[in-house]
Amino acid sequence: VHPNVSQGCQGGCATCSDYNGCLSCKPRLFFVLERIGMKQIGVCLSSCPSGYYGTRYPDINKCAKCKADCDTCFTKNFCTKCKSGFYLYSGKCLEKCPDGLEANNHTMECTSIVHCEASEWSPWSPCTKKGKTCGFKRGNEVRVREIVQHPSAKGNPCPATSESRKCIVQRKRCQKEGKGKKNREEKRKKSNKDESKETRQESKGRAARRQNREQRENNNKTQPKKRKAPNKEQDLAPVDTAH
Predict the structure, then answer these.
(1) CATH number of the domain encompassing residue 137
(2) In Å, what is the CA distance from 31 to each residue of 8, 17, 41, 48, 116?
(3) 222 assigned to some structural domain
(4) Locations of Basic and acidic residues compositional bias (predicted)?
(5) Sign of the alpha-carbon torsion through 218, 224, 229, 230
(6) What phi and psi, each to the nearest 5 degrees, are found at residue 114?
């Protein structure tokens, strides 16, 4: 072994030197060169740092650099995250998104343009005027719909969600709420009163009939039976004066 090569290294190195750092790594670790000023030092890491991607070989695992505009990548030609000022599209970093796509400044990706979508119109509401449905001839009726898909930055804007139109109804008088309620209350009280009166009259009639019946029965029990009057025609039979 070369005098500058040491077998008792630290930090995951399998072999190392005092001047160049790690020369090889332990199994499953990645070897990468880090620049410190004009000097490059070898280090062994469990995963590759930002701007690098890992490649595994039978003898050594290495970290290779991504493209200059790529922050993280899967391979040299397939980026997974772009550096500031670039937008990711199909593994590439672009300054401007292709036609039919728009730049998403939140994810820094080129995404499909989303247009607004609205639901079907609701049925027309009853014809009203100043919140009332009576006391007028001409009023307004409305219908509404909901937004089911909001648009993206370049998508078509949403349409109106409500419509109004003139309407004509058969004029009718509005019943005052207090008066109508009072009339209903009076009718209810009168109905209850009539029912109570009728019930009392029926009870009095039944009581009177029962009392008359009991009185007749008592009279029949207390009065003596009348004797049968003699037949005057028999008592005044003609006398035979022939003798």
Answers:
(1) 2.20.100
(2) 17, 14, 10, 9, 51
(3) no
(4) 175-219
(5) positive
(6) -110, 125
Radius of gyration over every alpha carbon of the chain, rounded to an integer in angstroms: 56
- Number of domain units in the chain: 3
* φ, ψ dihedrals at 140, nearest 5°: -135, 150
Q: Which pLDDT tens digit goes with each residue over 35-49?
A: 888 888 899 999 988
Convert the pLDDT of each residue in 128-171 to its tens digit. Answer: 988 888 888 889 999 999 999 999 988 999 999 999 999 988 77
CA distance 131 to 236: 106
Q: What token pair was written down for 120?
A: 């079907």
160 and 133 together in one domain: yes
Q: Is 21 left (phi over 0), alpha (psi -120 to 50) or beta?
A: left
| 188 domain residue, yes or no | no
Tell me if 20 is assigned to some domain: yes
Which is higher by pLDDT, 219 or 142? 142
> Which range marks the domain in which residue 37 is found?
7-65
What's the pTM value of the predicted model, to 2 decimals? 0.48
The whole-number pLDDT of residue 121 equals 96
CB 156 within 8 A of CB 115: yes
pLDDT at 77 over 90: no
CATH code of the domain containing 96: 2.10.220.10
Of the chain, the end-to-end C-alpha distance in Å amounts to: 200
- Position 132 in a domain: yes
User: DSSP assignment, residue 3?
Assistant: T
